[in-house]
Amino acid sequence: MPNPVTIQDVKVILTQPGKSRLCIVKVITSEPGLYGLGCATFTQRIFAVAAAIERHLRPFLLGRDVDRIEEIWNMSMVHGYWRNGPVLNNAISGVDQALWDIKGKRAGMSVCDLLGGKSRQAAHVYVHADGRDKQEVAENARAFMEQGYRFIRVQMGGYGGQGSPMVKPRQAPAGAYFDPRHYCRQMLDMIAYVREEVGEAIELLHDVHERLAPIHAVEFAKDVERFKLFFLEDALAPEDIAWFRHIRRQCATPLAMGELFNNPHEWQLLIQERLIDFIRMHISQMGGITPARNVAIFADMYGIRTAWHGPSDTSPVGHAANLQLDLWHPNFGVQEWYRPSELDYEIFPGLPVVEEGYLYPNCKPGLGIDINESLAAKYPCQEIVEQWTQTRLPDGSPARP
Ligand code: MG
Questions:
Q1: Could you give the percent of the chain with pLDDT greater than 90?
Q2: What separation in angstroms does the CA of 236 have from each of 1, 153, 290?
Q3: pLDDT for 254-298, tens place per residue?
Q4: Which domains does the chain have, with CATH numbers?
């Protein structure tokens, strides 16, 4: 038996080429020149993840056999005794994705091939069309259609409900205010208008961003049913998932859920009771490719498709991981896509490209993506206090963003 290839170092790379702070893990092996990359991006708590990797995971991982992905994932998850939290899950994901990348490079195969091979050549993506009013949303949606996109998420005024004529109490604190009832009225009007403008052949999606009281989410899901969305995203908050039963009993609006999930208990029941149609975890937030693979297979048994979370606060390495999963599992639905900048493509050679609404992989082994570390270092993470997550209801009380 040849000596195993082992983990020689675990390095954290923090960079901010755009608005999101990104955390990349580089696992360096005992084989000269062989390393893997993984996404550990929890942008709002980026320095906590970096410390979890450097101070806790790195010492635990040094010298371990890179081939034993299952053992390393499971032991990393229980090693801290308390588990399933976003900081640790992201830290574990960085290592997990890097180990899949290394295994692919050693085998000369893509991660998709390691998982079982392609079900498709490329992945449908959806993009995000915003606008200050419904006319602008429709214009932006049409511009995407001209570029070949067939799945478009329509939002208005960010995630909506902002800028309504709300009356705040005297000395109300600053914040990102929104009015949930105004949001419902505005969005129904906007979606009706955009559907009329773009026709039936384009798939429209909408994200409620967990901004409604549960009973209003039920009402909204019913009201929006007639516009035949491809899916309605995050109609409810993770804390309110028992309410999905009420939506399900009352309408056939397709439902997507999961980007905030950390713990298997959050998705198990939704899948087993067939309460949603698309499962869409943030792969780094759930702990990496290993648990995502398990959930994809589990969801397939219940006729539920995937739509992994893919905004700009997933790193390009995370997007490459999403795509490897998308290409492989039979129950793929659609992939959220953030349209990277030229700088993203320079820092991350191999970042997948879209043509005619399809996201294509390259032919490289592993995740097929690399990082230009010296260029990444020119864009350090800023020390900021996040503003958009300081959301408030009209009376000033804190709300879910
Ligand atoms: Mg969302």
A1: 95
A2: 53, 17, 26
A3: 999 999 999 999 999 999 999 999 999 999 999 999 999 999 999
A4: 116-363 (3.20.20.120)
Instruction: For residue 155, give the nearest of 217, 216, 246, 229 by alpha carbon.
Output: 229
**b/e per residue, 169-201, with b = 16+ CB within 10 A?**
eeeeeebebbbbebbbebbbebbebbbeebeee
What is the distance in A from the centroid of ligand 1 to the CA of 3? 45
391 neighbors 401 (Cβ within 8 angstroms): yes
Assess whether 209 carries a catalytic annotation.
Answer: yes
The structure tokens listed for 35 are 């390393």
Give catalytic status of residue 159 as yes or no.
yes
Rounded distance from Cα 311 to ligand 1 centre (Å): 8
Find the 177 Cα to ligand 1 centroid distance in Å.
18
| C-alpha 401 to ligand 1 mean position (Å) | 11
Q: In angstroms, what is the span from residue 360 Cα to ligand 1's centroid?
A: 23
Residues with CB under 5 Å of ion ligand 1 are 207, 233
Identify residue 108 by its one-letter amino acid code: G
pLDDT in tens, 95-119: 999 999 999 999 999 999 999 999 9
Model confidence pLDDT, tens digit, residues 355-385: 999 999 998 999 999 999 999 999 999 999 9
Catalytic residue among 124, 128, 209, 329: 209
Q: Which of 35, 149, 159, 177 is catalytic?
A: 159
